[in-house]
Task: structure prediction
Amino acid sequence: MTQAFLRRGLSVAAIAAAVLLASCSTPEPEAPPPPPVVAPLPAVSLNQGVAQAASVYVAYVREVGTIQAGFADAESIQAAIRKGAASEPGQLSRGMIAYGSILALQSPEYVAGVRQFASTPALRQEMISRIVADPAYAATLPGADAAAGLITSTLGKDIAALTAIAEAVEGDAYTIQERRDPRRRWAVQPVADRSGRLEGAKALSVARLPSAEESARLFAAANSGSGLNLTPAQRGAPFTPAVVNSLAIAALAALGAAGEDAQANTNALSTESNNEFCLSMSKLMLYQCLAASRPSYEDMFCTGRHILRDLATCTAQYTGPAPAQTTPTVTIAETNPMPGSGMK
Result:
């Protein structure tokens, strides 16, 4: 009995010791919960249509920029008119806005500023919806000043170059009338087939085919954010409606929401009435100028004023601030007297 009691006591002691040891041991840590799965933000994406539209504007500005003062004969003036007339105002306006969006995408500040507010699919969709509903929202996002700066500084170089050529061509329309200028002999002669050359200019005022090479270059630059070798610049608000639309297209692209399946949104944002109105009026003024022109030196003036200078003016209106629009109620001869016309 004594042995049984001892065995029972030892068992109880062993159990107590085991409990004590268990209470002193370090418990195994619990595994942390798995991190939430966050969908990666889509890559920057801009569709081919925007790049093609931009290529039309870029190619046209480049071609018109090859016009130079010092025309050697009457045919060289007509060649310049044909070169400048070969555009359609609506397409040119859309191309200008499209080009602006690609320039904006060269701003890493703007791309990063847009993308930081779309860390989840829900936030990204909210951003997209807000931009589509109100494009001006894109102009309030971080980096908009840097993006607008790239637009205005880049197009500002085109404006300056076109204005300089316009001034030279318009000035040459007066110089060529001087008796010491050997070109005067043909410059004062009536333009051959005046009505035919006017109708020819109208026939050329149709949509242009995009440049495949220029489209590819701009498409690659838009989606990579590099390749155009631009100098950083800043431009603060307010922005013109056309620049706002360029920023909105760029913002959608930064969110991965301007790809091939989103052309409806980018097409809508590429259209802006004030921008198109300026280019449309320029084309109308060119027609009126050619209709009133008789000698070749007046055609030269029409080229400088309503091809080169008007393109510079409309581009400057795009970059802003845009002046108030009024519909002209006077004739071309009253508003823009041509050299030698006798108008004051």
User: Anything to note?
Assistant: Residues 1-10, 12-24, 322-335 have pLDDT under 50 and may be disordered.
